[in-house]
């Protein structure tokens, strides 16, 4: 198994190879998710050695600086690309395989304390994501599910069941409705344009 420094070099090469907006190494150093990934590599080692508080402080600092929250207990494989990075959340018992690509607002989370507090101690609460998986923008994978190798989880998709290797999971696309006339009241406009209470 390569050491942390060689894996961090590999992270940098991965950004250059897979992010078309990055041309050179120096530019890759400014990639927004790179500090979160590198900090996690160090925090994870500390966490495994029992330095849990130090690991949590590092993870917290990375979250404040990058908007990416990776619990130090999570296991991240090699050549993971977190593109953009904003609002990515990876839970404590998540396992992310090699060559995974995830876009912004991806969540690899648990189903909730009301269920997780009843699990036996040490039982996994977060997903396992196989090698080569792509997780689209705002994809949410919850619970101790397994996403098989090379699967694609599309933007906005919610996954709470196992996904076979090579499968494609897509959320419904937007429905375009023609308006005959403008609504008379602003409340009517909100009712026809709001989606899940957000804009």
- Reading side by side through the largest sheet, how are the strands ordered? 1-4-7-10-13
Structural class: alpha/beta
- Quickly give the CATH architecture: 3 Solenoid
How would you name the oligomeric state of the polypeptide chains in this document? single chain
Please describe the topology of this protein.
Elements: H1 4-18, H2 25-28, H3 34-48, H4 52-66, E1 69-70, E2 75-76, E3 81-82, E4 89-90, E5 95-96, E6 101-102, E7 107-109, H5 113-116, E8 128-129, E9 134-135, E10 140-142, E11 146-147, E12 152-153, E13 158-159, E14 168-169, H6 186-193
Parallel strand pairs: 1-4, 2-5, 3-6, 4-7, 5-8, 6-9, 7-10, 8-11, 9-12, 10-13, 12-14
Helix pairs in contact: 1-3, 3-4
Describe the structure.
There is one protein chain. By secondary structure, the chain is of the alpha/beta class. It has helices at residues 4-18, 25-28, 34-48, 52-66, 113-116, 186-193, and strands at residues 69-70, 75-76, 81-82, 89-90, 95-96, 101-102, 107-109, 128-129, 134-135, 140-142, 146-147, 152-153, 158-159, 168-169. It has one domain: Hexapeptide repeat proteins (UDP N-Acetylglucosamine Acyltransferase, domain 1, 3 Solenoid). The chain is built from six helices and 14 strands. The radius of gyration is 19 Å and the shape is globular. Residues 195-199 have low confidence and may be disordered.
């Amino acid at each position: 198994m390569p050491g942390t420094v060689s894996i961090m070099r590999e992270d940098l090469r991965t950004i250059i190879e897979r992010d078309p907006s990055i041309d050179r190494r120096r530019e890759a150093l400014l990639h927004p998710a790179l500090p979160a990934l590198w900090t996690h590599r160090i925090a994870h080692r500390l966490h495994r050695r029992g330095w849990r508080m130090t690991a949590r402080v590092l993870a917290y600092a990375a979250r404040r600086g990058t908007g990416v929250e990776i619990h130090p207990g999570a296991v991240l494989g090699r050549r993971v690309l977190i593109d953009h990075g904003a609002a990515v959340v990876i839970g404590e018992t998540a396992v992310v395989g090699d060559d995974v690509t995830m876009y912004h607002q991806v969540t690899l989370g648990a189903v909730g304390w009301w269920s997780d507090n009843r699990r036996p101690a040490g039982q996994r609460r977060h997903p396992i994501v196989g090698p080569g998986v792509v997780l689209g923008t705002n994809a949410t994978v919850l619970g101790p599910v397994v996403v098989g190798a090379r699967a694609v989880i599309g933007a906005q998709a919610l996954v709470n069941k196992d996904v076979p290797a090579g499968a494609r999971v897509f959320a419904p696309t937007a429905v375009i409705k023609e308006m005959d006339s403008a609504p008379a009241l602003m409340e009517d406009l909100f009712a026809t344009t709001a989606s899940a209470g957000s804009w």
